Amino acid sequence: MADEPLVLGIETSCDETGVGLVRGSTLLANAIASSVEEHARFGGVVPEVASRAHLEAMTPTVERALEQAGVRFSDIDAVAVTAGPGLAGALLVGVAAAKAYAMGLGVPLYGVNHLAAHVAVDQLEHGPLPKPTIALLVSGGHSSLLLVPDVAKDVISLGSTVDDAAGEAFDKVARVLGLPFPGGPHIDRAATQGSGTAVAFPRGKYDDGTLDFSFSGLKTAVARWVEAKEREGGSVPVADVAASFQEAVVDVLTRKALQACRQYGVQDLLIGGGVAANSRLRALAQERCDAAGVRLRVPRPGLCTDNGAMIAALGSELVASGIGPSALDIPADSSLPITTVHV
């Protein structure tokens, strides 16, 4: 293992400053500094607050990762950083820091795609990805279905959300139900005390034949149901509403994912992104994959949310594949397409 390159990964696409260290396919450190509490009072991520938090957290988080891994700056062989997509200001902080580290250490720089990194990180836990793999990425900003022949070179978009992403819908519904931000973990927790069949919420684009998603109508349906209940003077059954909303989301996500597997003849499904930590999504996906004869891969929850380990993992994959480094003048691209794995 000592002969394999040591890659430093930096992630600053949203509200987490993530720094990871990976040697080959072995995770050595995964340090995270989250600014989520600073955003909670606003009910969502404030870009300017996130950027400032990244600036303050960058150096101590890098130092913490080095300490966790028991390595020094001089041991680093390459630096990888999220070049996009994400919040423009937040990305700029990470890209600038990565350029400085790469230049100062005299090592190559790899600007990578945040979404592709959510796929690559699974290799740290479950080994090399089957080629090809269908990947379902679900987070606060993205709900995407991908065909992944080779995560280092070839990622193909099959479908995406046409409005709200799944994680965004979780946050908005949590606000309607009076639950804290971020909404995903709180809805997941509340749902364990409720019934997923208590309220028949709609499933957007359920039978439209595409691999796209839509959660805006579901979010609105929940809000209207709650408003009607309050107008009647009754109490809102938070647990039942949370469970029914969650069931609608994961029903659509898993249905479309298995549809993609059938359509492209792929027997391996990977689920990644922050919403992949949802317990009901993991359970229903396993149930449906078992029934369909599809092998399911889901990273542990700590690797599903944004982190530096996933950036280091993709950087390590690029190095191992013999792909050349990025130029030192790479931009931060807030709308970087998923098909661009490396900039």
Automatic annotation (TrEMBL):
It is found in: Cytoplasm. It comes from the Bacteria. The gene is tsaD. Fe cation binds at residues 114, 118, 306. Residues 27-312 form the Gcp-like domain. It comes from Sphaerisporangium siamense. Keywords: Acyltransferase, Cytoplasm, Iron, Metal-binding, Transferase, tRNA processing. The keyword Metal-binding applies. One of its GO terms (molecular function) is iron ion binding. Substrate binds at residues 137-141, 171, 184, 188, 278. It catalyses: L-threonylcarbamoyladenylate + adenosine(37) in tRNA = N(6)-L-threonylcarbamoyladenosine(37) in tRNA + AMP + H(+). Its main location: cytoplasm. This is tRNA N6-adenosine threonylcarbamoyltransferase. Its EC number is 2.3.1.234. Required for the formation of a threonylcarbamoyl group on adenosine at position 37 (t(6)A37) in tRNAs that read codons beginning with adenine. Is involved in the transfer of the threonylcarbamoyl moiety of threonylcarbamoyl-AMP (TC-AMP) to the N6 group of A37, together with TsaE and TsaB. TsaD likely plays a direct catalytic role in this reaction. GO terms for cellular component: cytoplasm. Binds 1 Fe(2+) ion per subunit. Belongs to the KAE1 / TsaD family. PANTHER family: TRNA N6-ADENOSINE THREONYLCARBAMOYLTRANSFERASE (PTHR11735), TRNA N6-ADENOSINE THREONYLCARBAMOYLTRANSFERASE, MITOCHONDRIAL (PTHR11735:SF6). Its cofactor is Fe(2+). It is an enzyme of class 2 (transferase). The keyword Acetylation does not apply. GO terms for biological process: tRNA threonylcarbamoyladenosine modification.
